[in-house]
Amino acid sequence: MPNDDDDVNMALRALASDRRLLILEWLKHPKDHFRAQVDGDLVADGVCGVLIAEKLGVTQPTISEHLKILSQAGLLNSKRVKQWTFYKRDEARIAKLKRAIMARI
Q1: From its phi and psi, is residue 79 left (phi > 0), alpha (psi between -120 and 50) or beta?
Q2: Which CATH number characterizes residue 78's domain?
Q3: CA angle, 31 as apex, 41 and 88 as ends, to 5°?
Q4: pLDDT tens, position by position, 71-102
Q5: Which domain holds residue 98?
Q6: Could you tell me which of 15, 73, 70, 44 has the C-alpha nearest to residue 52?
């Protein structure tokens, strides 16, 4: 089982990418950054990976890798709706990681 140090290290590695930082920033206020979705609510369900890829200007495999890294670091939660995967920030986990980071510096 990972400890707080492992969690912090994984989160810092995930945050070492400008693109992943942008994704987290956009997902903080999804209605300000993404168009409406056919399925799923931007706030309640999260943002479809396709819309994130579109906004970032990357391919589906590239966005999948970024979202996987952010999810594995505990910064995002994912949810399947029909054939789509929606992503939203895990605010409780982000707050915990912020506290753990601040305790280390």
Answers
A1: beta
A2: 1.10.10.10
A3: 60
A4: 999 999 999 988 999 999 999 999 999 999 89
A5: 4-104
A6: 70
